[in-house]
Amino acid sequence: MTDISANALLDSLFDGVYCVDEERRIIYWNKAAERITGYTASEVIGSRCSDNILRHIDNCGNELCIGMCPLFATLQDGKSREAAVYAHHKAGHRVPVQVRTAPILDENGVMTSVVEIFTDNANQVQMVQELEKLRRDAFNDPLTGVGNRRYGEIALDSMTYEWRMHSVAFGLLFVDVDHFKKVNDRWGHDVGDEVLKMVAQTIRNVVRGLDIVARWGGEEFIVIVPQATPEILSSLGERIRATVQHCFIMKGAEKVEVTVSIGGAVASDDDSPASIVGKADAQMYYSKRHGRSRVTIHQ
């Protein structure tokens, strides 16, 4: 195959291809490399990749040309490499690319240059981002931003399994907004929605980092508490109750305030997800019957 036909073949590829000699001087740059980076062959051929034209960075923002360059490493040891990086586009922005480097050997097996092939990952990154958004949408309550019931059910199933298989203790708090119907009747559903968002955000701000918050339905929320004891549940429930009690929304000159009633239970040997929810729910109703704005934990 002649050099001309080889270049034509490389120019027909969707992936960017460029080659450097032993001094890291760019000696070849195909059409796809021009398209992906914005740099034409005439702008880069003859320059050194160590001049940092592409300025590859990793996912943490580290400049690879300073000391972690896959291409330079291949020049040093003759081994092929692959990495996901961000290349610098001539227009200034970053382009996500998958790079693969490989040595080019002469007929005696001596390395004379290195080729880097890079694939534009922009569509793949966009797809991953869209899938992540779909995942969030599938498991997030759109009104309050906390997990939805499905998310809570999956988390409960997982925690129950860990409890049965590995004795990893957990507990559940069941939180219900007191007199929520009166809020809707007096102020309307828009204000009611604001109250739910206020309560959800307050719960999320009060719980520990490892705790899981989900909207169970209507004005009900659950908090799944890993490594729980009755004392931990009681303390956390009381913090939620007291903090919500001091929250309010201003409507004109009036405050819209609510309280919450909370029930809790620690998982026992024979509990299922449904049974522990039932226990915590029963304790929540006990709190309702005994004055509301209180915390009751199953003993």
UniProtKB/TrEMBL annotation:
Matching SUPFAM superfamilies: Nucleotide cyclase, PYP-like sensor domain (PAS domain)
Residues annotated as domain PAC: 79-133
GGDEF domain residues = 168-299
Where on the tree of life does the source sit, at the highest rank? Bacteria
One Pfam family, short name: PAS_9
Matching PROSITE patterns: GGDEF, PAC, PAS
**CDD domains associated with the record:** GGDEF (cd01949), PAS (cd00130)
One GO molecular function term of this record is: catalytic activity
Domain called PAS: residue spans? 9-46
Q: InterPro entries from the entry?
A: DGC-Regulatory_Protein, GGDEF_dom, Nucleotide_cyclase, PAS, PAS-assoc_C, PAS-like_dom_sf, Rev_trsase/Diguanyl_cyclase
Identification of the protein by name:
Sensor domain-containing diguanylate cyclase
